[in-house]
Amino acid sequence: MSASPAPNRAPSEGETFAASRWTKGNLFFPTRIVVTPQRVSRVKPRMFGSSEESISISQVASVHISTGMIWSDIVIESSAGTDPITSHGHRKADAKRIRDLIETFQTGGSAR
């Protein structure tokens, strides 16, 4: 079983990265990180609806990746002083791709 579905590669739509169901808090409703040219969002599905946090790409101050043996934790901090977006249980390659996408979109480059 794959830890994350194949990310959406359309630059205008961004990419979506799902946390592994094998990690704490993600068994039934895995957290998703969505990176678009406009914003970074953390979507946490619930039984009825979902909760979403987002930070504008231009206001992302830093991306911290903490890797374990298998999974990575991601902390995306905002320069606007709001709470950071945090997510755990992502594959290492996905965490690095999230960081690279944010850096690419901040410089105005193409995601490919």
Secondary-structure blueprint:
Elements: E1 15-18, E2 32-35, E3 39-45, E4 50-56, E5 60-67, E6 71-78, E7 85-91, H1 92-106
Task: Please tell me about this protein's structure.
This protein is mostly beta strands. It has one domain (15-106): Pleckstrin-homology domain (PH domain)/Phosphotyrosine-binding domain (PTB) (PH-domain like, Roll). The chain has one helix and seven strands, in the order E-E-E-E-E-E-E-H. The strands form two sheets. A four-stranded antiparallel beta sheet has the order 1-2-3-4, covered by helices on one side. The protein has a three-stranded antiparallel beta sheet with strand order 5-6-7, with helices on one face. A hairpin with a 6-residue loop joins strand 6 (71-78) and strand 7. The longest helix has 15 residues, at 92-106.
The count of helical stretches stands at 1
Going across the biggest sheet, name each strand in turn. Answer: 1-2-3-4
Distance between the termini: 26 Å
Shape: globular
**SS strand fraction:** 35-45%
Major sheet summary line: 4 strands, antiparallel
CATH class: Mainly Beta
Spell out the CATH superfamily. Pleckstrin-homology domain (PH domain)/Phosphotyrosine-binding domain (PTB)
Order of helices and strands: EEEEEEEH
CATH fold category name = PH-domain like
User: Fraction of residues in helices?
Assistant: 10-25%
Give the total of domains.
1
